[in-house]
Each structure stands twice: as C-alpha cells, then as structure tokens.
Amino acid sequence: MNQALLTKPEGQKRAKILALANQKGGVGKTTTAINLATALAACDRRVLIVDIDPQGNASTGLGVNRHARAVTSYDVLLGDAPIGTATVPTAVPGMSIVPASLDLSGAEIELVQSSRRREFRLRDALGAAAQDYDFILIDCPPSLNLLTLNALVAADAVLVPLQCEFYALEGLSQLVKTIERVRRAFNPALEIQGVVLTMFDRRSNLCDLVAADVRGYFGSKVYDTVIPRNVRVSEAPSHGKPVLLYDMRCAGSQAYIHLASEVLRREQGALNPEMVQ
Q: Looking at the 3D structure of the chain, how many domains does it have?
C-alpha cells in the first residue's frame, strides 16, 4: 500500500460516515463492512462499525457474543443510551463496534410511533462520536426501511456492495431513487461514495459481463478493486474474526486491503484535489 495513504490528512477532525447499503441480501454487505473496517484500522485509522441490522451478523462476525450485548444500537436509536455506552472494542486494534440485537426488528415500529426526529435518531447519536474516529461504517439491513433511512440521513456517503450476478442491477435503481429522496428531504450532502463488486469469479464470463454493465452505469463510482469469491472469506465469520485476522495472505484479504487503499485515496483526493494524479 502507498505509504502516503498511511498519513492522516491534515485538518480531518470529523469522522467520514459511510452507510453500507443494498436492499438485496447476500451481496457481501456485512462482510465488506467488517473487512474494510479492519483494513482501514490496519492503516492506523480509528474505525467504528455501527451494526443496525437486526440479524447482527457484523457483531457476530467480530466475535461479540449475543449474551454480552447488554447495550446495543437499539438502545441508541430509541434514545435510551448514548453511543459511547453501547460501543465495545474488538480484537482489531483501533476498531470498535456498536453491536446489534434482535430488538432492532421492533425498533422500526417504535420509531414510526414517535414523531420526534425519527429519521435523525442515528445522526444525533453519532454526533457525540464523530470526533473520536476517522471512519464510521454503518452496516444496514437488507431493506429500505426506517433503519436504513436513519443510516442514510446520518451518512456522508453510501458505499454499495454489488454481487456479480445476473440480477445485480435489478432493484438498484430503487436504492438510487431512495438516496435522491433522502438528499432532497433530509441530507443534501449525501452521495454515492462508491460501488464495490463482490463475489467475483474470474472463471465466469458472466461476472465480466456484469462488471462491464455496472461500470457502464456507474462509471468512475465503481472501485477498481473487486472482491473475489474466496472460501477463507466465507469461513472467517464462523471464527468470529475478520478474514484479515483469519488468513492475511488469502485473496480475499488482499482484495480488502486494496479496497481500503482506494477508499483512502478517494478521501484524500476529496480533501486535497491536487494529490489526485
């Protein structure tokens, strides 16, 4: 990795908040959240993952036992606990997580019944943590519900994991329209930070065709890095570890390191345009 990317940009005092969102399940969203966060932490960035998926896969994948989740993102969203109380460290130095619980499945109903800033609950909560981190990654549920809306309102940008399969672009227009609505109504600065192609099989011509279609639709928003299908990536969550801790040398780990490099390069380029070559 370019040594310049390990240097934190001058003047960056507030966390970059990225919502990882795709209403289609099984696209590698949580896997990307965990392993991108780990790779960013390895680059000496302070990283917080906020798990707002009721399934809590990001929390499980980082080894946070369900019985140890006394305070979770549910309590934060309902205003019953500050985000610092819900934050727990992980095995990755410099990386913490706000875990999720099944209680989140009922949080949407409770938020709907509340008329007071229900779309801004997560943004308000993250305000207290934004100075303590360089990146905050929000792992959204695989649906465009009120939990995801809270993430989009709180985020600076959206990172979209997209599986390389025949139906990859189907339904994605709905996410784009949702982002446009959020931008108009709640968060004018929201943008698509990037699209990352996941589960890429270089032996399949279909993957190449899908990648070409996605790049034709999103252009430079699509990262150069693609995440390959890799058995070590699939095995790592069952051990409660990011794949970078489970097997640093595997193809999946190396891909996430390269993805982190691209994320940092884009972020430094946004802050210092003269650095972009």
A: 1
